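User: Some background: our group keeps a shared notebook of sequences we're curious about, and every so often someone picks one and asks for a predicted structure to add to the entry. Today it's my turn. The entry only has the sequence so far, pasted here. Could you supply the structure so I can complete it?
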Amino acid sequence: MNRVRRGRPIGGGLLVQRAGRSTFVFATRARRVRAIAVMTAEYARDRRAVRSAMRRILRATADNRPRRFVPAEPQAKQAMLGRALASSGDRDVDAKLALFCSLNL
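Assistant: Of course. Here's the predicted structure to add to the notebook entry:
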C-alpha cells in the first residue's frame, strides 16, 4: 500500500495520523508516500519542527563507506582508557596476554 487513505494535512505534502500515543507523519507527492516518520504526539503538534524533521529525512542520502571512529578528546587520553578487566598487575605480562588474545587463533 503506497497511498495514504486518511490523515490530516499540515501543509507541504505532509499528512499526520494519530495512532495512540504515537503519530505517523507521511511525506507525500501526488498522494503517494515518499517517507514515513513516527514521532510523539507532543512533537507532532509543532508544525515547524515536523516540517524541519521531514525535510531532513527527504534530503538524506545513504552510502556504504565504512565509518572511522574518532574519539572525543577526553577519550583519546591514555589515562581515560583504564585497565583491563582481568589483569595480573604486571605490565609486561599484561601486554603479552593482550598480544596473545589479539591473535584470534
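Suggested note for the entry: The first strand starts at residue 8 and ends at 11. Residues 73 and 91 are 25 Å apart (CA to CA).
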